[in-house]
What does this fold into?
Amino acid sequence: MTTADPVYVWTLYRDTRQRIIDLMTKDAWEASVPACPLWSVRDVVAHMTAVAEDWAAGTLTVPPSDAETAAQIARFEGHDTTAVLTAWDAAATQLQRLAERGTAPPLGDIVVHEHDIRGALGAPGARTDAAVAQASDQLLNILNTPVPMRVTVEDGDYRTGPQDGSEIGLRTTRFEVLRWRTGRRSRAQLAAMDWSADPTPVLEHLYMFGPADTDLAE
It folds into this structure.
C-alpha cells in the first residue's frame, strides 16, 4: 500500500471530487440515495462540502454526530447547485494548502459517498481506483475484533484481534471493505460473505456505522 503522504492523499481527494462533479447532471441532484436513506444526492454533496469546510477550519468532529451531519446539510439550504459546488471548490483549495503543510484531507468520507452517489444514479465505476485502495487500507488498519481474524483482499491481507486462538478468515475485495466497514451492507449480507468459519463472533465488530437495515445491492 502506498504510504499515506498528505499530498498524495490530496491528489486522490481531488480526482474523486472531480469524478463526482462529472456525475452531477441536472437530473442527478434530486435523486434519492439508497445507501443514505432520506438523503438526496444534493444532501450528500452538501454534506461533503460542509465536511471539507469544517476539516479546513479544524472544527470537524470525527465522526460527526447525527445532529452535526444534519446541520451540515442545512448549511446549504436555499443555495443553488452552482453555489454549493463553488463552496466545495473553495474548501478543496484550503484542503490542498493543508496537505502541502502536512495534513491530509478527509479522503474516506468522499470515497464512500462517491459510491453512494453512483448507486443512486445507476452509474457504477472507479471501484478499483487508488482512492478505494487507500480508504480501505485505513479502514482495515483500524478494524478490531475480539477473536483473531484475517481479511484477504485482492492484493494482500490484514490480521486483527488477539494473537492466540483460532483465526476466522474472510476473502473479499477492497471495494466491499469500503462498503461493509461504513454500514452499506446488512447483517444478512455480512453473514453471507466468504468466511472460513462461523463469523458470529466478529459480525458486530465489522462496521463503523450501520449496518444497513436492508440488503443493498450495488
